[in-house]
Amino acid sequence: MSAIVLGLFVLSIEYSGRTVDASKFNDYMDYGQTVDNMEIVQEIEQIKLMEYKTQNEKDLMIEELQRKLDEKEANKIHEVNLNTISNLYDIVEQEANLIALDPRIAKTLIDTESGFRNFAHNGNTNGSYDSGLAQLNNKGEPLEHYYNKNITLADGRTVKVNYVNYKTDARLNVAMGLRRYKAYMDELGNPFSAYACYNIGPAVKRVLKNHNQSDVATIITAVRKSGYGKGADNLKNNFLVKYKKWTGGTFYR
Fold this sequence. Notes:
Layout: H1 3-10, E1 13-15, E2 18-20, H2 26-30, H3 35-48, H4 55-74, H5 85-98, H6 103-114, E3 121-123, E4 129-131, E5 136-137, H7 141-146, E6 150-152, E7 158-160, H8 165-168, H9 170-188, H10 191-200, H11 205-208, H12 216-225, H13 229-247
Antiparallel strand pairs: 1-2, 3-4, 4-5, 6-7
Helix pairs in contact: 3-4, 5-6, 5-9, 6-13, 9-10, 10-13, 12-13
């Protein structure tokens, strides 16, 4: 990016007589985004300022632009976004070992969330979306917890989390997901409750804290009775199946 173009983006951007803070674009500039991508980011910020659009209309417009941005990022070549499944297994295992998480459970989580598909992207009914191997939500707890913080990875890098690199850096995406999952597991006492919390959100913890020594069937029932039917289905039909695959059927009690 030329010095002239970079200077233009450092300045605040004017739109309909109002100013958009250019600091919102720092994450993209730091990652070396193209001018084309920067224009998408600028358009997203402009939509947020539209007073004649409803919030729902703005959310839909932003979601579509975000998809375009993610597709562009997915086509980039990044040194840690390796193409072979064996290398992705290695990344998960290395990041799990770094935080003393059983690699079999770590692979269970990633397999459940994305099937080891790098750059997996899924939209949600609330307008948010999940990205990467660990399916980190753009409005969820892992990103909120780690944003703008440094994470030291198993490959020796220390990376400051921003709104771009958690999606485009496979190892960082995995590390963030595993650390939040491990925190839930440490708090709740078993991998099944931890996954329910990871999948549904921290609100379900109040239900799960009473079942830290329960078997998985009891946990699934408790989650379902609490009104989280979809989360119970994900736990039973997805996580539990992958758990058996990676651990050989060893169950925590």
